[in-house]
Amino acid sequence: MSKLLIVGTVAFDAIETPFGKTDKILGGAATYIGLSSSRFNIDNAIVSIVGEDFPQEHLDLLTGNGINIDGIEIVKGGKTFFWSGKYHNDLNTRDTLETQLNVLADFNPVVPESYKDAEIVMLGNLHPLVQLSVLEQVENPKLVVLDTMNFWMDNTWDDLMKVIAKVDVITINDEEARQLTGEHSLVRAARKIEELGPKYVVIKKGEHGALLFHKEKVFFAPALPLEDVFDPTGAGDTFAGGFVGYLAQTEDISFENMKNAVIYGSGLASFCVEKFGTERMEKLDLDEIDSRMQEFKSLTQFDIKLSPNRAL
Amino acid sequence: MSKLLIVGTVAFDAIETPFGKTDKILGGAATYIGLSSSRFNIDNAIVSIVGEDFPQEHLDLLTGNGINIDGIEIVKGGKTFFWSGKYHNDLNTRDTLETQLNVLADFNPVVPESYKDAEIVMLGNLHPLVQLSVLEQVENPKLVVLDTMNFWMDNTWDDLMKVIAKVDVITINDEEARQLTGEHSLVRAARKIEELGPKYVVIKKGEHGALLFHKEKVFFAPALPLEDVFDPTGAGDTFAGGFVGYLAQTEDISFENMKNAVIYGSGLASFCVEKFGTERMEKLDLDEIDSRMQEFKSLTQFDIKLSPNRAL
Asked: What superkingdom heads the lineage (chains A, B) (predicted)?
């Protein structure tokens, strides 16, 4: 069974949408990545850091989903990372109301011995030096996937370039791809990003889907058109978890199979947004997933006949 | 051979993009629709109106592409409809600098006898009453497709509702779908639009592709990610022309075949934007089209295995 190592935040979120408001609920990139990747038949572990205020029931939720949490450091007397955000009416944009790094400010990840040989490593959105320190502890993974955001481009450019040079896949959104490269065309942006290191570039376009680039090849996975987007929090990380989870289970990191991984990522993300926080991802069974993937097939597959003569 | 009747503007455009500027060049919705639909093996005609200042060479371009122009009225002493626009740096939005209706102000379309029995009618973007007058002249078409824009929603709502009630397919962009229905979700918007008349709703999302809705079914055709978008003028009409042209040639207006039509529309639109105005569409051969459609297949087709048990 393939091993997937996930490093990222495990946190408290306080979310406000046009539909309601939460107090501190379970959140964090690694949480969403793990709840998504654990749908697959793999051995996944989270490396992270929480405070003493982090409830046992949240830890039990992770282990109950088959996620190894030996790598989650619990800091006595510490407070868990906290993020608070408010979504605009169309749910496409959000404002960060508050960020309290708390224990995350001193996060020095320690990869458990048994996961140093993980085949796939998922570096969730974190300070690039923290991501690099994880890479220094693992032994020759087959695939390293990096997620990042514009904050690190603005504040830690050189460190970001260092870690980008060492990964196989980068996942960012379209605005970030443009900021990273100065290119408006996503095709040109992906090409420039590949020169920085990653052979595969996933550009997430939120409700507009995701693009996968590799040299001259490109694949597009749509986002499922939805009647209601309830809470978009964690959708991007859920996408990433589906992507790496699928690759880990199928043990095939070819471009052809990455297409499927991107489709699975998009499918799982479509569940995440149906309810507040992690609620939908906590109870998601395989029949539901299969049914959703069938919707993705119907959404995109066609059968045009090609012909070089006038009678198309 | 199926007949396609197109009504819309044939015009002069003056276009400014970050890459250059034109004086009066050939434009107009019906021009782009026709140059696109005439790639297919069909009998297509344009009903429109131009002034005496409209050059014979432009008319020859249309007839040279097999388009019947008996229905294009040439007004002695009149001036052709003129539009001037300027695109923003990212080419996604544009400002209209000038619109001179000229002869279009008195357009009373006369459908040629031989096209009154056209199987497919494409009502290009025009005053709803003008679109309605064309419907009154045709004899029981199999499919009527309507394009419209926010201008008519703002200024001629009741007339727009009248014509919408009589068509089978409506094509609009996402902003317009939201304005028309007050819904943000495109799924909900399409549902409301279907209640107004059209059984099929095509929502164009520009660089983000197009959605096709019919009852509970939905299909998505991406826009091809491009290195360079040179001039987006006419892309939407080229899309429409590919859509109706493909349906006319294949003589199959089922939802399944409409998926293919939307893909063809998207494929042809991807050529349109490569050069200024109609230049790319004027010389487009079938080998190029087939090659581009193959790119669309590679862009979207995947083969995930679905399984109800843990071993996905």
From this structure: Bacteria
Segment A275-300, tens digit of pLDDT: 999 999 998 988 999 999 999 999 99
CA distance A307 to A288: 39
- Position of tokens 């697959």? A40
- Which residues in B lie closer than 8 A to residue A294 (C-beta atoms)? 306
| Amino acid letter for position B1 | M
- Are the C-beta atoms of residues A286 and A271 closer than 8 Å to each other? no
- The residue extents of the domains of chain B are 3-300
Sheet of B120-123, strand order: B67-75, B43-51, B3-7, B120-123, B143-147, B169-173, B200-204, B210-214, B217-221
Rounded to two decimals, the ipTM of the complex is 0.89
> Length of chain A, please?
312
Distance of alpha carbon B180 from alpha carbon B157, whole angstroms: 9
Residue of A17, A304, A305, A306 for testing the chain B interface, max B β-carbons within 10 Å: A304
> Residue A214 pLDDT > 50, yes or no?
yes
| Residue A182 forms contact with B (CB below 8 Å) | no
Percentages helix, strand, coil for chain B (3-state, rounded to 5) are 40, 25, 35
Q: Residues A55-67: pLDDT tens digits?
A: 999 999 999 999 9
Q: Which of A226, A290, A302 sits opposite B308 (nearest CB)?
A: A290
> What are residue A172's phi and psi, to 5 degrees?
-145, 170
Contact B302 A220 (CB under 8 A): no
Residue of A nearest to B212 (CA): A299
Residue B14: which H helix or E strand, with range? strand B11-17
Q: Name the packing angle between helices B29-37 and B255-272 (round to 10°).
A: 110
- Per-residue pLDDT, averaged over A247-268, amounts to 96
pTM over 0.90: yes
Inter-chain CB proximity B304 and A294 less than 8 Å: no
CA distance A309 to B137: 35
CA distance B174 to B309: 39
Please name the residues in contact with B259: beta carbons below 8 A apart, sequence gap of 6 or more: A302, B212, B219, B221
Looking at residue B5, its amino acid is: L
Q: Give the HSE-up count for residue A100: Cα atoms under 13 Å, Cβ half-sphere.
A: 15
Is the model's pLDDT at B206 over the cut of 50? yes
pLDDT band at A115; cut points 50, 70, 90? very high
Query: CATH 3.40.50.410: does it fit domain A3-300?
Result: no
Handedness of CA B255, B124, B120, A310 (dihedral sign): negative
